User: Fold DUF1330 domain-containing protein from Reichenbachiella agariperforans.
Amino acid sequence: MIYITQLIYIKAGKEQEFQEFENHVIPLMEKYTGKIIQRIRPTVESFVSGEENQPYEIHFLSFDSQEKLDEYLRDDSRLQYIHLKEASIQSTLLVKGTKI
Assistant:
């Protein structure tokens, strides 16, 4: 089992494109054993401190294996919407790990 944490930073005014991308690709995760443990859209009030800008969303995900994650990332159904991701996401901080 692998776990992924993503801090997702959106380009200004591109929230709708990001949501459209998410609406198409999140349901595909299940096909590859992917699960959303948490999907958080933090508010200004929820931040205590930090050196970086506030992310638009924070995702905590899991996949049974790296191979399943790789299959998901290569899925043709997902790739047909990749232009929405590229148009809307400024940057992503991704951390992979295991549960301890």
